[in-house]
Design goal:
The complex is a heterodimer of chains A (231) and B (220).
Chain A (H helix, E strand, L loop, with lengths): L2 H23 L12 H29 L2 H33 L7 H22 L4 H28 L15 H36 L7 H4 L7
Chain B lengths: L2 H19 L2 H19 L7 H23 L2 H6 L1 H7 L4 H31 L5 H25 L5 H27 L6 H27 L2
Helix pairs in contact in B: 1-6, 2-3, 2-6, 3-6, 3-7, 3-8, 6-7, 6-9, 7-8, 7-9, 8-9
The chains are: A mainly alpha (231), B mainly alpha (220).
Amino acid sequence: MSRHERWAVAAVALMLVAGAAIFLYAPTDYLQGSVQRIFYLHVSSAIAAYGCFAVVLVGGIIYLRNESLVADRFARGGALVGLVFTTVTLVMGMMWAKPIWGSYWTWDPRLTSTLVLWIIYAGYLLVRRLADPGRQAARIAAVVGILGFIDVPVVHFSVTWWRSQHPGSIVENDALPPEMLATFLFTLACTLVLAAVMIAIRYRIETLTDERMHVAEPVKMIATREPEPVP
Amino acid sequence: MNPLRVALAVARKDLRSEWRTREMVPALAQFIILALLIGNFGFQIDARNAPSIAPGILWLALVFAGLVAFGRTFAAEREQASLEAMLMTPASPVAIFAGKALAATLLLVVCEVVLLPALTLFFGTPLSVEVVAAVLLATVGMAALGVLFAAIVARVRARELLLPLLTLPLWIPFIIAGGQAVQSAMGLPGNYQEAIGLLLDFDILFLVLTSLAARFVLDE
């Protein structure tokens, strides 16, 4: 088993433990019933998605500063993994909203800005696919990743100013019973580990792809060689 | 080189080329009239519901006309390969970008000169200073973002596909605030002052961001 496969197995095992905690340890919500169990993975994957997009942002900034291919590969991996977690967040949110709000979708700030987030990073991945691989794609994508990250709070703010009905931050308000909080924090930690492992695997894939496409690191080859010892 | 003079020279060049060919403005005007025609057949519009439908048609027509206009901003440069020549001059890329954005904004304003009276004519909504101010304020920021992404996709395959995908999500804040401003100016509930203030904030924010990003987009 390779290093990446071992990480993947560990992350999946952690997620299974988190699933057991969600269904067996956490108490059933008095008002919402079992539907409330969606909350643990829904919020965790939203936070993981923001973390992934922060990787895209930082990777983009570093790439624009010194054209580091490492930063760009992390950005590529972050965008794809973040998009997966945003999809999970949106789908689970809709599954929760149908029984609780009575409809799959409302134009609430969080829903709207999450949808915009999804569209922006789907566009980011499309840019990467359509632009010529290498310097051009990386620069363009870095700009899209940075502007996209800034756009999301702006959209969120403008819709909040407009109207809101999404439940507020119950974690910060200390409204969760301790068992629920423990389950949530554990699920969050497991989800973040999963996201990190997924990005690491994507990073490896992007490195191999770059090697196949002969995208070379733009640093001088001589500088990386160790100076020969003088006898 | 004085960046302001560079920007004005680039804008003047674009506008003169448009004045001589007269390609974009008639095409965009026709596009806008067609959008209003489709709006008319898509909705059952009468004197009562016109104020609640017309703002939506206004923004739809403006957004898609804008996408068509910005998709063309770098077309001439690409066909003649003149962008590289412009970037080889000592003029700063940000000034060149500002000039292109200025010309594109003016082009979009010309479209609005067609759109707003036509909206009043066809749907009977008021053509007030408030409506014009909201639309113009939204145009500034939308043009800055639109030209930035037009520059980004200019050298990419399938640019027609990519431009709307990248631009529309970033235009959403302008459409939220601008939509609210136009709605309240046309007599629907809403706070006009706040919406205009928000539009101004977004204009400043995105003008700064796009001029920071322009260097990396054009500087190749």
